Amino acid sequence: MKNKFRKITICNLIYLYNITNQFQPENSTNTLTLKVFLSGHKKTPLIIEFMTIDDCIRGQLLNSGINMKNTKTDTTEIVNINKPKYIRELILLGIKNGWTGFNKIDNQNGLSFLEELGFMTTDLSPGKSS
After folding, report:
1. Contact of 81 with 8, CB cutoff 8 Å
2. Whether residue 129 has pLDDT greater than 60
3. Residue 17, domain member (yes or no)
C-alpha cells in the first residue's frame, strides 16, 4: 500500500501529515482534516478540523483554494491548505497551543487557527452569512 503521508521539516524535526475531506450532506458542510505526526510518534497526532460550508461546484473550498482577506497583512491570499506554507504555519500554531509531538491534545478548530493567522473566515463558516 502506498504511503499517503507527506513530509515537512520544521526546525530540523520531520513531520508527516495527510489531509482528508468528508462531506456531510445532511447539513451541506464539509470537514477537511489535517492530521500531523512527529516522525516516529503516530499515537500522538495533531488533528486540525476545518468545518466549512460546501461549495456545490468546488467542494471543500480550503482544499481547492479560496481568496481570503488577511487582516494582519492587509492583503488577500488564495488559501489552499495543501500548500506547505500553510501546513508549516498550522503546525507551528499547534505547537504554540501545547502540542509537542509526544503528547495528545484535543482536536483543534481549523477556522480558529486561520483566524489566529489573521484570515477572515466568515465566508467559510456554516450558518453564517457573508
Report:
1. no
2. no
3. yes
